[in-house]
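Customer escalation, tier 2.

The customer says the design service returned an amino acid string that "doesn't look like it belongs to this structure." They asked us to rerun it and document both sides in this ticket. The original structure tokens are below, unchanged.
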């Protein structure tokens, strides 16, 4: 505000000095040093006052805009801080989900390895059973009288029951893997939904 009044006074002084410095001509053509008429001074003063009011208005509106901008910036900063606080738990949940997915993947890899080993062992047992049945048939023919056929059938049934038990265990492992695949899919979808 002081700057505006200082400018007003400066313009007023310049205006008065210019009015006093200008020579006034008479009809005869001679220059006479005379003060400017009061009307010209009033016009200059009115112009200076209007100019100072315009400057004051610009100053006030600019100051109001600056205050509004500061308030808006404060509001945006608060919103950003809230968003930051809200995203921190989501990031922690995402980290936990990723850790759970990695753990499930490791477990599934172990189970796949166990299933592969079980399949190999089952295949070898089946092969042994086929070989055993072949041997039993040969032995039945060869030792038809010395060894009881019922005893050989009992052994074959035991082997068959063992094979069936392994098949059930393999089926159980397969269902377990499918369940874990479903859980892994759900966790992946949750992870993708959070990001």
């Amino acid at each position: 505000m002081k700057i505006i009044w200082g400018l007003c006074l400066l313009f007023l002084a310049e205006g008065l000095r210019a009015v006093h410095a200008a020579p006034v001509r008479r009809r005869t053509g001679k220059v006479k040093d005379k003060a400017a008429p009061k009307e010209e001074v009033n016009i200059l003063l009115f112009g200076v006052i209007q100019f100072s009011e315009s400057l004051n208005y610009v100053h006030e509106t600019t100051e109001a805009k600056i205050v509004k901008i500061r308030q808006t910036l404060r509001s945006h900063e608060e919103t950003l801080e809230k968003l930051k606080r809200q995203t921190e738990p989501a990031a922690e949940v995402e980290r936990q989900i990723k850790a759970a997915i990695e753990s499930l993947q490791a477990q599934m890899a172990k189970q796949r390895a166990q299933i592969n080993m079980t399949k190999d062992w089952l295949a070898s047992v089946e092969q042994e059973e086929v070989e055993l049945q072949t041997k039993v048939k040969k032995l039945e023919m060869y030792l038809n009288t010395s060894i009881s056929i019922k005893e050989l059938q009992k052994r074959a049934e035991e082997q068959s029951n063992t094979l069936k038990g392994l098949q059930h265990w393999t089926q159980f492992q397969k269902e377990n893997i499918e369940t874990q695949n479903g859980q892994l899919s759900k966790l992946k979808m949750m992870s993708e939904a959070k990001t």
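Tier 2 assessment: The sequence is consistent with the input. The longest strand covers residues 24-25. Confidence is low (pLDDT under 50) at residues 18-33. Sent an explanation to the customer and offered a walkthrough call.
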